[in-house]
# Entry
Amino acid sequence: MKHKVLFISSWFPNKLEPTNGNFVQRHAEAASLICDVEILHTIGNFQQSEKFIFDDQVINNIRTLIVYYKNSKNPLQNFYRRMIAYKKGFHQLQYPDLIHANVLHNSMFFAVYLKKKFKIPFVISEHWSALKIENQHKTSFIIKLVARLIGNQAYKILPVTKNLKESLEKLGIRTSMEVIPNVVNTNLFFLQK
# Structure
């Protein structure tokens, strides 16, 4: 029996940003070859009048649920609406064995919530260059604090480069880490020695 994995991500292709986080979609497609994968993403939309709009599709054989929430100019209200959107979307999907989160951003507090409420472990693939050592001096304290809080709750962190792994360790993240590069199209990109 295949493990059920729910992908959630701070970045994911949607009608507002069609190429945003497309590497996450490719990763989910690769994982779906050996696991039963579903995708849940939420994003704010200033143009909609409804509080929530559910876009539930099967894309490349993966159920993909994107919940659009009514965006506002208030970041705290937007964070709250995003968490509610995640919660509403989660209850429409199958119960997963594992959460695969992407990017140590405040929206991944939802993965921490699922761990605490339902005892579902989560791993995080980390791609964000803002967390690299050479960029940390210009990355806000809040972003680094959020990354540390979420990262230290994860079962495992999967940074895409060795440099990023070392950077996360420097931030004070003690969770076990293993470098796993982004998924790429090997018809276009070739491994070199």
